[in-house]
Amino acid sequence: MDARGPISTALLDGLAVLLPVECAGCGAPDRGVCDDCRAALQPPEPAGHHLVTPPAARASADGRGLPLWFAVDYAGVPKTALHALKESGRVDAARPLGRLLGVAVTQAVAALGPGLPSGAMLETLVVPSSRSAFRLRGYNPVESLLRWAGPQPRRATGLRYVRALRDQASLGVEERWANLRGSVEAVRQRLSGRHLLLVDDVVTTGATLLECRRAAEAGGAIVWGSAALAHTAKVKRTNSELHGDLVSRQVYGGGKGAESNRPRLGRRVLD
Length: 271
Ligand SMILES: [Zn+2]
Description:
This protein has 271 residues and is of the alpha/beta class. It has eight helices and eight strands. The chain has a domain at 47-69 and 100-242: Rossmann fold, CATH 3.40.50. The longest helix is centred in the middle third of the chain and has 19 residues, at 94-112. It starts with 5 loop residues before the first helix and ends in a 40-residue tail after the last strand.
């Protein structure tokens, strides 16, 4: 569904000579996301569904699972394209990725909506960017993805980080939990009485989502579930952490293998 006419296509071809770009999904020479990668980023039906649960060691304190809907596995073209968007400013990748996120949000809303009290309205709440990630990018990538996600529920805001975090990417499951615990808070009474669907781009252990749920509930909100563009189980973990986490995964889609493409700026920031 490309609305570019012949004139703008010619213009883009001209610009590509001056500013050569590679496909954000596979690195092939192209003006933007190539046709193959665009095909690999087609929204799956249905989205994957998964119950985010804390590791066994924390189950007594945070035992409730949080339903998660996600569009794709965090691998291949979606992974490379999302990385290019977040770390190399490849905004052309936002549109196909945003549509994927939209599928997950839509299916979450369809599944959760009937369970709400009559008259209640489910609102989305984007997981906030950590301070360091926001400083680095100047925007929240999930917000830009939602711009392409199609019709959406109303958006609520009202969570913020109250302290700096270590880079989650280098941490194991238990370390992520310790790093995140108490790091998010609800802003005044903004979330009181609101019915929320938490939205993030990539979910790994789910520790970020569960910390956001804790903070939102402390602020008086009711958190019904979560939606993400992608889900990954790839995280360093000890044997004791292998139990009780990441149950009943179902993965649809995933795209072709493009993981060998190295990130262009290489700066790692928080999930
Ligand atoms: Zn490509």
